[in-house]
Amino acid sequence: MAVPDRIRVSKLTPHIGAEIAGVDLTGPLAPDAVRAIEQALWDNLVVFFRDQPMTFEQHVRLGQYFGELYVHPAAAAAARAKAAAKATGGGDGKAAPNAYTSTVDGHPEILKIYADEHSSQVAGEDWHSDVTSETEPPMGSILRIEEPPPCGGDTLFASMYAAYDALSEPMKALLSPLTAIHDGMKVYGSRSAFDHTRTYPQSEHPIVRTHPVTGRQALFVSRTFTTRIVQLPKGESDALLQFLFAHVEQPLFQCRFRWQKNSVAFWDNRCTQHQALWDYFPNRRVGYRIQLAGDRPFHQA
């Protein structure tokens, strides 16, 4: 597909990442711009934009160009924590400043990503794909950082296509029929901002996932959510998962994005992992994220 002349797509690395210029995300997008962004996403797995001071309504509208919006399973817990803080004298009703301090009033599909000098945890410290504990994990995420720290706070992204392609043929054959458990309690059950009395999603997914648009194969296990391989005894499962976690985190498969005020990242959650670096404590970092509804992972040889 030809990219409109006004839109410039600049690759960051051979495997993953591109910056897009010539698009104003704060206004309505023309159909050719939507198609160009979508194609750049399929080609580069994560795309970045600079200087996009979107309102919440504009952020939501942007997501709706690419699919149905998704509400995070922890959104209700975050909202309850916010209400509880307000009821007990928390002033503006802010929850404990950990991974997700709150949703945005009137927009349950928007999560506020926040950390400051009081934070004991932040979102995305370990490598992961978002919410893979769901039966149908989100297709993608769109994050805008409103207030970056003075320095640091970069996000790393890794191509799970490249990670799969780098495996030997015998290893690919071993992994092809295997599935793994992705457990939401492993993540949300240990975070003080979330409701520990409820059950979070747990799902079984193929270790090698076929992308429904590109048809390419991607590794689909992460240190954050994946707990065991269903078809293997515990010892073999643990050993193979540790190998895969280390493998997908190799710098060869990565790009690194340095945030500026009102930078935006849009990533394909089906074929990437990412890690948010928390090297800026005690400085503050503030952003807002929406996600797009996805499909059930499958493997097609």
From TrEMBL:
Pfam families: TauD (PF02668). Keywords: Dioxygenase, Iron, Metal-binding, Oxidoreductase. GO terms for molecular function: dioxygenase activity. Belongs to the TfdA dioxygenase family. Residues 9-290 form the TauD/TfdA-like domain. It comes from the Bacteria. This is TauD/TfdA family dioxygenase. InterPro entries: AtsK-like (IPR051323), TauD-like_sf (IPR042098), TauD/TfdA-like (IPR003819).
